[in-house]
Amino acid sequence: MVRYITPAVTPLTTDHRLDEEGLVALYKHLIGGGVDGILILGSIGEFFALSLEIKRTLIRRAAEIINHRVPLLVGTGGTVFDETVDLSRYALEQGADAVVIVPPYYFPLTGDSLEAYYDSLCQAIPGKVYLYNFPDRTGYEIPVETVVRLARRHPNLMGIKDTISGMDHTRELIKAVKPLRPDFEIYSGFDDNFAHNALSGGDGCIGGLSNLVPELCHRWVCAVREGDWTNIQDCQQAINRLMSVYAVGTPFVPYIKAAMALRGIGIGTTPTLPLPTATSEQSAALQAILQRENLLPQQM
Fold this sequence. Notes:
This protein is α/β, with parallel strands linked by helices and 300 residues long. It has a single domain, classed as Aldolase class I (TIM Barrel). 46% of the residues lie in helices and 11% in strands. It is built from 12 helices and 8 strands. An 8-stranded parallel beta barrel has the order 1-2-3-4-5-6-7-8, surrounded by 4 helices. Helix 1 crosses helix 2, helix 4 runs parallel beside helix 6 and helix 9 runs antiparallel to helix 10. 48% of the residues are buried.
């Protein structure tokens, strides 16, 4: 069954502390909008710039607030093996349903090195593990052959988030892994690939626009499950238009937050340092996108 999982933003106060009220508002918005799960500490969650203390607090509070209403996935990857294992164990102890682990970044790794790395992780982590392939950020991709060998050996390796703009790599994953492990979940990491992923035999999407429009993403999931082609097309075209949010500034994370604040979701716009805050011109561009899609509070 296809799913749309939200890689949630991390609400922060203006002094860069965890925004407790924002967390409550965010998860209420996402769960009320019908998302099929929530991933915290992903790339949009700014895991790369958060202290271990904030990460642990966020994991604990997310588990408490979400309270098993939807599955909770936690990004625990980093550049230090023992820290990844420790944070993964902590997340599972706090009630997370699974952990999602990006490979180490800075130096590119070969397929053999990645295989050994994930072999050790899957053996050390007493719970469900997902791979996270994001070559634009790590500098290299997890090869399809590596995923196949890992999936064969580790029953607790449950799937992969494949964050690549096209469907080539994801398609090859589906073709190679699904016949061996039908239960192995293969998600696209860009929103506009959701329907293509589902049609190819994948499991859906873990996409950032669901922070902004969870109800649209839920409608899309329902349309795919029901084979409602008119609705599938409508949702695809709406998401295609909303993809322009990602292009307002670089990196895109602060502009997702700014768009959510404009929509009235109840979170602030503060990003982690050194990410920029949206300028007045960028905020105006975001407002124009939301107005065009009838997503501003006064339009709803």
